[in-house]
Amino acid sequence: MRMEYSINGELMKVKSSSGLKSAGKRRSSSSKRVVRKVKKLQKLIPGGKGMNADRLFVHTANYIMHLKLQVDVLQALSHVYPS
C-alpha cells in the first residue's frame, strides 16, 4: 500500500504502514535500552538510586571529576613519597 502526504508543501511517500510500525518498534526498543542503561548507571553511582536521568548525568559527571582528582592527588603523592 502506498501513501502520500505533504509536509510544508513537500510531498512525502510511504510505501506501507508496516514501515511506520517497525520505526515505532525501533523507537520503543531504544527507549527500553536507554531506561535499562540509566538504571545500571543509578546502581553504579553513589546516591544515584531514584535520581531522574538529568540529575543523574550531572551527578555522574561530578563523580567522574571527583575520581579523577583523587587519582591526580594520589599520583602526586606517589612522586613526593616514592617507595
UniProtKB/TrEMBL annotation:
It comes from the Eukaryota. InterPro entries: bHLH_AtIBH1-like, IBH1-like. One of its GO terms (biological process) is regulation of DNA-templated transcription. It is found in: Nucleus. This is Myc-type, basic helix-loop-helix (BHLH) domain-containing protein. Residues 23-37 have a biased composition (Basic residues). One of its GO terms (cellular component) is nucleus. Signal peptide: none annotated.
